[in-house]
Amino acid sequence: MSENTLDPNQLEKLTGIFRVLFNAPQLELRDNLTAKDVAGWDSFNHVNLIISIEEEFGLRFSNDEVGSLQNVGHLKHLLASKLASS
What we know:
- By secondary structure, this protein is mostly helical.
- The chain has a single domain (8-85), classed as Non-ribosomal Peptide Synthetase Peptidyl Carrier Protein, Chain A, CATH 1.10.1200.10.
- The protein is globular.
- It has helices at 8-21, 43-57, 63-68, 72-85.
């Protein structure tokens, strides 16, 4: 497993966070998925998303890391690299 790839269990947890937060049980996490693609993904829910991910995975993102996120693929890459280094 690459250090920049989430394992299936981690990806399932991440997908679950998105599905619950955005009340979208069928949501699939594509790498090119962005906030504009998901109903309710506004700045407030972006903060909730980051907090939920931090709590679920027991880590913290810096403001710079959060500010540089472009899409779900970037989020998955960042999460995987943080998990690999923890």
